[in-house]
Amino acid sequence: MIYLKTTLVKLINIIYRILNRSSLNLGNCSPNIAKPFHVGHLRSTIIGNFISNLTNFINGHVVRINYLGDWGPQFGYTLLGLEHMKSDMSNNNMTIESLYNAYILANKMANSDSSIHNKAKSIFNDLECGNSTTDIKNLWNEFKSITINELEVIYKRLGIVFDEYDWESKYSKENIQDVLKRLNEIGLLKFKDDGSTVLNFNNQEITILKNDSSTLYLTRDIAAALRRHKLYDSEDLFYVVDNTQSKHFYLLKSVISQINSNINIHHIPFGRIHGMSSRKGQGILLEQLLNQAKSTMDLKRKFSKTTKINSMDDNDIADVLGVSAIIINDLKQKRKKDYNFSWESALQVNGDTGIKLQYTHCRLISLEEVNSNITIPDEVVAECFTETVALDLILEICRFEDILTETNQELEACILVNYLFRLSNCINKALKVLNVKNSSSIIAQQRILLFRRARETLSTGMKILGLVPLKCM
Description:
Blueprint: H1 2-16, E1 23-27, H2 42-58, E2 60-68, H3 73-85, H4 96-112, H5 115-128, H6 134-158, E3 164-167, H7 177-185, E4 189-191, E5 197-201, E6 204-209, H8 217-232, E7 236-240, H9 246-259, E8 264-268, E9 273-274, H10 286-302, H11 314-331, E10 339-340, H12 343-347, H13 354-370, H14 388-398, H15 400-410, H16 413-433, H17 441-465
Parallel strand pairs: 1-2, 1-7, 2-3, 7-8, 9-10
Antiparallel strand pairs: 4-5, 5-6
Helix pairs in contact: 1-14, 3-4, 3-5, 8-9, 10-11, 13-16, 13-17, 14-16, 14-17, 15-16, 16-17
């Protein structure tokens, strides 16, 4: 009984502890302009959001940065495609779809006409070197604006908010002269006879400025890391990018350590999703994925006997459920491993899914609403709990702190996801046994308090994963 009382005290401390927010961390997500949000960006987006939420909850203040790819020949391709389509190039007529179609068209044209690539490259080079006309610059800015508007619609559905939109274009040669000077001072730069500039690093030469003075990904990432450290006084920079970029970030980390040893570069690699093509073999856009999930959830709610009338719009509930299913289906996978997507497993109501977590949370909300006349005490009385299901639930709640520590050490969302599945199982077993309505006053109060603590733990875990806990479904 002494052990039980100690455990219950620990439970109270877990739920209501004061958080220490001392360190500063950064998250990354990198879609490209003039392209719809492809499902390939799903993992980087939700994994980055999860890590940001987790770090912020445990001990840090997080600045969430969306680093957009607006720099490169793709701008030239899109422009050439629009010209070939004879499109009306005004902001009122261009959409993300028309920009993307223009980009695809220009790439197809380049397969049979090699001059297209040179033209696209020349358009970008003029832009980077400040030689573009005002009209070209205005179009480039319109492309950026259209892209941001499109992305924010998707981010809103996913419940994701960024503190800053950063752009690759911010780190053109003209804007990073101080970085180049610093690299030269520490002896890392070498100027080649062909006009290019390379990093002389670990007995190898790595190009950071081409002979036409245009920058590369590595150049811009070096400059961006230094800026973020200076602007936010951040020591830890997290980059959520797939496994294939490990070599790039190893190099970035090595170079940055030579410039400033106080900056820690963290590459958070992840595997890819397979089986995400449409019947035509084309990649699915994220909006299509979310719409399909929403539609499936809407149908299941209409044919469910447990669906309740509530103040929240049915359309919004279906969307939250669909998003929850997609997020949990991804985050329950091992981060570094590829996995095959399955509509059946992602959107099933039964089993270990995002729907299960939402259903359990709604049951606990309903329990409190039905028993709103009961005064809930501030402290748990250990002697009131003798049932095995109650003790199992208490002990499971008490594991939350250790689970968060392990999750943070590994940066593996599946650790927290699997814990919440176990917690939900304990909650649903306890709900069958620990009757509230027909219990004595003290027992009823204590049971409601226990279920409230369970709901708060479940809700906190769901929010860290990026879910919006529903009150009714």
